[in-house]
Write a structure and sequence with these properties.
- This protein is mostly helical and about 140 residues long.
- The chain has a single domain, classed as 3 helical TM bundles of succinate and fumarate reductases (Up-down Bundle), CATH 1.20.1300.
- Helices cover about 75% and strands about 0% of the residues.
- The structure holds protoporphyrin IX containing FE (HEM).
- Protoporphyrin IX containing FE binds near residues 45 and 94.
- Component of complex II composed of four subunits: the flavoprotein (FP) SDHA, iron-sulfur protein (IP) SDHB, and a cytochrome b560 composed of SDHC and SDHD.
- Its cofactor is heme.
Length: about 140
């Protein structure tokens, strides 16, 4: 215990960052993609659960609420933005999920491949989300 105390007081004295200290890492595309995969996964789970709970507890049905949104006349820009905001996490998580599954079978681990597949996923996600927005 005494050794541990010495260890921690030395770290504090030398102003060493304590683990976990992700701030020491230089941000990279694969790193951002990884956190976005988690973010979109958790976001999708939350959104689907909220949708399911709403379907159970709200008094009216889906077409009624859709009409309600239409009647607000928020304009095509905001509607488009909202549609993109839904389409992007779905597209991104699906394409990046396929990238993850490739890793799970041992493919695509070389650093240039990680970047290439990463940029492909980002590109496909943007194109797919724009296409879905205009549906
Ligand atoms: C609405 C549908 C989906 C939901 C709600 C969902 C949700 C999630 C969540 C919560 C995670 C855990 C994220 C983390 O803690 O790191 C996850 C991970 C994952 N998802 Fe999805 N997901 C969905 C669709 C998909 C699809 C369509 C694919 C594949 C094509 C996919 C592939 C994966 C993979 C491979 C992982 C594990 C990533 C890892 O190894 O860290 N998901 N998903």
């Amino acid at each position: 215990k005494e050794e541990m105390n010495k260890f921690w007081s030395k770290n504090a004295r030398l102003n060493r960052p304590m683990s976990p200290h992700i701030t020491i890492y230089k941000w990279s595309v694969p790193m951002m993609m990884s956190i976005t995969h988690r973010g979109t996964g958790v976001g999708l789970s939350g959104a689907i659960s909220a949708f399911a709970v709403a379907a159970l507890v709200l008094p009216d049905n889906y077409p009624y609420y859709l009409d309600l949104i239409h009647s607000l006349s928020v304009g095509p820009f905001l509607i488009g933005l909202a549609k993109f905001g839904i389409a992007f996490p779905v597209s991104y998580h699906t394409y990046n999920g396929i990238r993850h599954l490739c890793w799970d079978i041992g493919k695509g681990f070389k650093i240039p491949e990680v970047y290439r597949t990463g940029y492909t996923v980002i590109g496909l996600s943007i194109v797919t989300s724009i296409a879905l927005t205009f549906l």
